[in-house]
Amino acid sequence: MSTNGAKPKLAMYWAASCGGCEIATLNIGEHILTVDQVFDLAFFPCIADFKVSDVEGYPDGYIDLCLFNGAIRSSENEHMAHLLRRKSKILVAFGSCAYEGCIPALANLTSRQAVLRTVYLDNPSLDNPSGVLPQTTTPAPEGELTLPAFYHTVKTLDQVVDVDYYVPGCPPESHQIWAVLQTVVAALTEGAPLPPKGTILGAGQVAVCEECPLARHEKTIPRFYRPYEIVPKPGLCLLEQGLVCLGPATVCGCGALCPRVGMGCRGCYGPLPGVVDQGARILTALASVIDVTGKPGDNEEELARRVQDAVSTIPDPAGLFYYFSMAHSLLHRARVADNQ
After folding, report:
1. Which residues contact 194 (CB under 8 A, 6 or more apart)?
2. Does 3.40.50.700 match the CATH number of domain 9-104+153-190?
């Protein structure tokens, strides 16, 4: 706690994301009362009427803990990232969007102009005969109206500012959120040591498969299925049934919630320790279960065809392999012509 006896200050900000991280934070049950007892809210626009000017008026370092969720998609997101970094002692990349880019960063497979065309021009539900696109400035009788600039490339929080810790998940699990808050509270109020800077909080050290109760066997498959195409057999590994599951390439911490209910892991908790590119690891994991054992006499051309047939049952490989990690991947973004 601060030397003047005041409560530590807590902030949470929502950048380019769906807002699920706020809901998950409020879903920590009765622990929310403890948070209220320990912290004073300094900035939390989702639940209280705070203004950016409030934050701008704080001294640097005034906020003890800031949970920043969302990717950096616009100039406003970037401005808030720099502002909250300056005003916060501890800045946490909270959730997959801030940590890895998540769903917003799939836009890095295309261009800014293509996104704007799809949203504002080439859409059957629109009524925009003049083809008007958002502009950063527009003159009006009342004065100049401004909008944030929409960036060509989505970035993670740590690609814009220095980050102290990471909390993975889409959204993070409530019990993990509470564990993170407990760690910080103990440091602020009792002088307990904080984890080393850069630590990924709330995640384990092994793959999701290790906390998944479904039975696994050594088995290969000739093709993959989409979830609506088959009803999985209870108690059996989904990947062995041909359902795409990214558990072998994803770090644990979520409790294997998706596989437990028959839905393959999509990788939201991020890569295993030491893995630089989660998408490449996912590709390797899926390739290892494809059955390419041909008949006696099959040539390489036939084996290649069998592999291609299996791969073709994944309709969107790039979107699947980099579902959560595009912005943090080695690829980072696709090269496109209209890069304005």
Report:
1. 90, 183, 184, 187
2. yes
